[in-house]
Design brief:
about 475 residues
Amino acid sequence: MIKRVLSLVFALLLLAVPALAAPSPWAEVEVANAIKAGLVPERIQDNYQQAITREEFCEAVMLLYESFGGKVSVTENPFADTQNPKVAAAYGAKIVEGMGEGLFAPENNITRQEICTMLKRCVVSAKPETFIADSFPNSFPDEADIADWAIDGVKYINMLEVMLGDDAARINPLQNTTREQAILLIYRLYNDFTETFDWISAYYGFVTSGNTSSNMLGGSFAVVALDNALYISDANGITVVSESGESKLVTSSRALAIYPDTNNKVFYISADDGKIYVSENGTEKAITNEKADKFLISGNKLYFRGTDDKALYCVSTDGGQSEKTAEGPCSMPIPSGSTLYYSDKSGIVSKDNKTGDTTYVYEGTVNDLVYENSTFFFTDGNGVLYTLTNTQGNSPKVLVSGSVEKYCVYENAVIYVSGGSIYKRDLNKRFNIKLGEYQGESFNSYKDTVYMKDLNGKIFKFNPKTLEKTPLN
């Protein structure tokens, strides 16, 4: 009987070990992807909740370094307390420097500030062409706890959205990290520099991701179209830049807002008479008789807002008689299947295009309405930025608590201006990072890229992670 009980206990213990050693449920997918990408040394593919040592993390960083194209050179081992060739290679690549006096402390659990420092050095060494800002405006409540030698690394890796703070935005620089947490940090940095173009996302995300707040509210000035070409509108007219970098003037007409369509068609609001035109293969054609301040296209329909009455109108993209869709004042409409969403003085309206029936999705003050991934974004009279899932009866949730002057949705975050500064805020509230002082006129987005226009009409492609600005005109 005793033997049977002991056998049962032993069997239960054997069953329990793999469960304890496996990644936590929240880390399973990314850990599996990191292993598939060749970023996880075999020695740490177990006991994922165990704290990772300096030597173990160094081995993982060197796999990341090689995935970035870094060349491992043979170098003498400078450390007396480890003979690990990966550590020596990391020293040769200027990723690690050791603890002084010829020691590396391989068995010490690595701190979060050490992780950030090694990750930044990995990028600098493997990708010397990568833009890295001279200084970063992001800060943390516990910034005084970060060592002077680590501050740039911590801020850079935080700006890349790799290492995020806790619920109070503390970075906790002296805390240790588990194996699974370290793997996720490496995998996030890997993804930051190995993204590939997703045509499905580009195609289906264009109406919203390529035409978010600044476009709908103030007219787009730089938009990536379905052909993955960049269309730029400035004082010279409208220019298209192909993927190969070749540029061509579409029209010399100055535009207040642009919307590229397929088959080399570009729709725009003329700065001369305020009407909407289409430019195709060098010919210009008026689409509307009315003046418009904003517009967008969905299928073969062109929706626009009247300059004077702020009412919504609809017309065929081939032109013709415009039909009034809603009495003003209204926001720009948001087409979604057979439903049209827009805001008026009472809230967010849902209109069935087949029956003409209207219902209120939300009643209350709504400014700057945007719709992205089945979620509404809007500000109220106090500049509080809300999100509202597209289900009647849901209550809006606060995303940014105050004084949002303008905003733009991009990928899984928003860029917004408040108090003269520009920030990025994760939709899941994992981070709220200051990017710097804002001295621009407007901005809009496409996928993970933000386009900004300054007060002099200069247009930049802006990377909200690295802070790199690339002039476009």
